[in-house]
Amino acid sequence: MAQINAGDTAWLMVCCSLVLMMTPALAFFYGGMVRKKNILSTLTLSYVFMALIGVQWVLYGYSLAFGPDIGGIIGGLEYLGLAGVGAAPDPNYSANVPALLFAAFQMMFAVITPALITGGFVERIRFKSFLLFSIIWSTIVYDPLCHWVWGVGGWLRQMGVLDFAGGTVVHIAAGFSALAFAMAVGPRKGFGRTPMEPHNIPYTVLGTGLLWVGWFGFNGGSALAADGVAVHALVATNTSGAAAALVWMLLSWLDGRPSTLGLATGMVVGLAAVTPASGYVTPMAAMFIGAVAAPISYYAIRFRARRGLDESLDVWACHGMASTWGMLATGLFASTTVNPAGANGLFHGNPGLFATQLWAVVVTMAYAFVVTYVLVKVLDWSIGMRVSEMEEEVGLDVSAHGERAYS
Amino acid sequence: MLKKIEAIIREDRFNDVKEALRGLGIVGMNMFEIRGHGRQGGIELAGRSGTFQVDMLTKVQINIVLSEHNVDEVVQTIVNAARTGETGDGLIFIHPIEEVVRIRTGERGREAVMYPGDIDEKKGQK
């Protein structure tokens, strides 16, 4: 019988709180970037997942993701309603903390991932259709993917894929789903003709600060223990965020002025990039990962804009592309001196890991993109995804929620 | 004969213009925060990645109703205080006023817009 470790348990409970805070932080990060007639709608799109997944995860989400493996594809139904998930540790995941705490910590990841997607389709989607999409997406995209990568017996995990805190499960899945969603529903009314200026950049900056702090829980907590790996993850996280922010600031300066929104975006990009690598790489490798992530996402935004694609808040560019690089960088920089439970990457004499990482990236991109695209199209044909032109013009705060943010 | 001066100026010049007009004895005025653009068509702002174009710029509009014989002097004062020499300094429109009614007293015409210590009193013109 495994022994509960008080330090590990305390750290993971704190991390659970930190990761929960990231969803409200994300809501304000996104909310500041939309027009003032849509801020309540945008906040709701993120906040609602604390409620929706807060219930779904307990009922069946955890069981599908982390229940006893069925064919490497999905978890079984043994943990429905969190039955049998209690104070005793689950040695499959962490021998030192209650299984229920692991489930709660993982819940926060399941909450923020679909919230991330919403940046792709703000200001134009019917709330009812969005709720239906979200519950289906969490069930058929998030839960299986989570099982493949992190569940014991999951087929990608079996292959030796390293994803410390959700490069594939969270960021690539959200980024490519956002891209698919935006392509399936089309742009906002007037996109490309009328400027859609962020209405409250201070909200976005505030959200960024809270996201950064929360990310210590996201990556540091993914060690599932208060140990050296957790510290490595925390320092890697901070270093990558810092490096990416500096490079982004420089890029925007070269293009005119060092934009505040750019600095904040650079931070998030660096944090997203290092997420899969955080528990496997040295601080200097993390610095390199962040520094390279910035131009990747910076020019991905340009590319997206030139294509006339209204993936409104650049989830694909800032999360999908940054974490794609982070997953591949894990295949380059991972070192067993940082984390004995990990593996060595290409630069430490193991080219095989890079190939494995590349495969995981391709699978995640393809699965998230295709399933999301088909799901949105089906919902669009059946119940309609978009609000009417009039509702969009008025703004979703009044038309969907019957409220005004600013009286 | 009463006229209305409608001056669209830079936000950041508003305080200087207001002080200059006060010095002249212009007591009553309205100020609006407006958005618009003229010949320039807008400006470029720093965005997330590179720059983007904003076509509606925030400006200040001042409305003043005054006697015809003070118009030139007041217009010149506004021009002097509002001018930077850069694109976007603004425009001044001058309209005829049909009638003015002061709600409290029912006074009409010039009497309705006369104030103690205003430009006419300063000049000794009653």
TrEMBL record, chain A:
Record GO terms (molecular function): ammonium channel activity
Please indicate if the UniProt record lists Transmembrane helix as a keyword: yes
State whether keyword Ion transport applies.
no
Q: Where are the transmembrane segments?
A: 12-32, 39-59, 99-122, 129-150, 170-188, 200-218, 230-254, 261-278, 284-301, 313-334, 354-376
Q: Which GO terms describe its cellular component?
A: plasma membrane
InterPro entries found in the cross-reference section: Ammonium/urea_transptr, Ammonium_transpt, Ammonium_transpt_CS, NH4_transpt_AmtB-like_dom
Q: Where is the Ammonium transporter AmtB-like domain?
A: 10-406
Location in or out of the cell: Cell membrane; Membrane
Note the superkingdom of the native organism.
Answer: Bacteria
UniProt topology in membrane? Multi-pass membrane protein
Q: Which UniProt keywords apply?
A: Ammonia transport, Membrane, Transmembrane, Transmembrane helix, Transport
Which Pfam families does UniProt cross-reference here? Answer: Ammonium_transp
Q: Name the protein family.
A: Belongs to the ammonia transporter channel (TC 1.A.11.2) family.
Q: This chain belongs to which protein, by name?
A: Ammonium transporter
Q: What is the lineage of its organism?
A: Bacteria, Pseudomonadati, Thermodesulfobacteriota, Desulfarculia, Desulfarculales
TrEMBL record, chain B:
Q: Which organism is it from?
A: Desulfarculus baarsii (strain ATCC 33931 / DSM 2075 / LMG 7858 / VKM B-1802 / 2st14)
Q: Name one GO cellular component term.
A: cytosol
Q: Name one GO molecular function term.
A: enzyme regulator activity
Organism classification: Bacteria, Pseudomonadati, Thermodesulfobacteriota, Desulfarculia, Desulfarculales
Task: Specify the protein name.
Answer: Nitrogen regulatory protein P-II
- PROSITE patterns assigned to the protein according to its UniProt record, in alphabetical order: PII_GLNB_DOM
A single GO BP term for this record reads: regulation of nitrogen utilization
